[in-house]
Design a protein that fits this description.
Layout lengths: L2 H12 L2 E6 L4 H6 L2 E3 L1 H8 L6 E5 L2 H10 L4 E4 L14 H10 L4 E5 L4 H4 L4 E3 L4 H7 L4 E5 L2 H10 L4 E4 L12 H10 L4 E4 L5 H6 L2 E2 L2 H10 L4 E5 L2 H10 L4 E4 L14 H8 L5 E2 L4 H18 L1
Parallel strand pairs: 1-2, 1-3, 3-4, 5-6, 5-7, 7-8, 9-10, 9-11, 11-12
Antiparallel strand pairs: 4-13
Helix pairs in contact: 1-13, 3-4
Bound molecules: (~{Z})-2-methylbut-2-enedioic acid and iron/sulfur cluster (SF4).
Length: about 300
């Protein structure tokens, strides 16, 4: 560990702070975090935290979800400018308008959405829980927002449902091309290809497995194959390279770097634990009471 990492470890212990980090954070941040995972795992953990303050290393909707699930704790987003552009591709007004025009639809939102949007939808899902949750929705008519690729991936698995898709996308995963898949398959013909369902349908169809970041990590570790192509953000590859030295990992595309996830630096984490930086998450009570319903429904249906 570097001196800065050691200092962060000492401060967080002294101040009873817990650090949560998404799998897309740089490995030096993952090393000093108490909990690292995909967005469902981080939501679940947020309900069980035993600390005064949480420093969240990820993007703002994730820190806001943590705040809603542990409202008595101070939650600090380590880099105040880190956000998910896809979350802003749908607004509460869009949802209100759709409901007026389509009153017979259940509205499902990927957690990569703003807290304001979450306040108007029926249930949230993560990539690891979407299929399980949407299978339990009795209504045949479902609107899925904002990620068209993830929505399409789930819709193909439950053809009995009538799923309308919003046209949002992750500008990191959506950029992966079939040429990149063919190229890496040719260079590493025996490698296993693991992708995130935020990638386009044609990429998912060429993969050996599609799943959330934590599911990709699990597959990579448990597979008997010792060569693996990672079709999600580079943070996952960095973690695997550091912790599974006997296997070889290749990044599917050089575009798989999320600029927002990479905004958080170790220095930001140091400032946040020192109460000299980051942004405290504050959610107005009425909004929180509305938005938490779709998060609680997600957790209930995913159990
Ligand atoms: O932002 C993403 O791409 C997420 C939440 C991925 C994941 O599976 O955790
Ligand atoms: Fe948003 Fe994509 Fe970055 Fe995830 S990887 S935070 S979906 S832009």
């Amino acid at each position: 560990m570097t001196n800065l990492q050691k200092e962060i470890m000492n401060i967080k212990k002294d101040k009873n702070i817990k650090i949560l980090a998404h799998n897309y954070q740089t490995y030096d941040i993952q090393q000093i975090a108490d909990y690292v995972g995909d967005s469902f795992y981080l939501s679940k953990i947020s309900q069980e935290l035993d600390c005064d303050t949480v420093v969240f290393c990820g993007v703002n909707f994730m820190a806001e979800t943590t705040k809603m699930l542990s409202p008595d704790k101070k939650v600090i987003l380590a880099n105040e400018e880190a956000y998910c552009p896809m979350a802003r591709m749908i607004s509460p007004d869009d949802i209100i308008k759709f409901r007026e025009e389509n009153p017979d639809y259940t509205i499902v939102s990927y957690v990569n959405s703003t807290t304001e949007t979450k306040a108007y939808v029926d249930v949230c899902v993560t990539s690891s829980t979407a299929l399980k949750i949407m299978n339990q929705i009795e209504n045949k008519n479902i609107l899925f927002v904002p990620d068209e690729n993830l929505g399409n991936y789930i819709a193909k698995k439950i053809p009995n449902k009538n799923i309308k898709l919003w046209e949002g996308y992750c500008n990191v995963h959506d950029r992966v091309t079939t040429e990149e898949v063919y190229d890496l398959r040719e260079k590493h013909p025996n490698a296993l290809l693991l992708v995130h369902p935020e990638c386009r349908e044609e990429i998912v169809n060429l993969a050996d497995f599609a799943g959330s970041t934590s599911e990709i990590i699990k597959q990579a570790k448990e597979s008997s194959n010792d060569e693996i192509i990672i079709g999600t953000e580079v943070g996952v590859l960095d973690y695997l390279e550091a912790t599974v030295p006997n296997k070889k990992f290749y990044l599917l595309s050089k575009h798989l770097v999320c600029p927002n996830m990479k905004k958080t630096k170790l220095e930001d984490v140091y400032k946040a634990v020192s109460c000299e930086g980051g942004r405290e998450v504050v959610i107005e009570e009425e909004l929180m009471n509305k938005a938490i319903k779709s998060i609680n429904e997600m957790i209930r249906l995913a159990e």
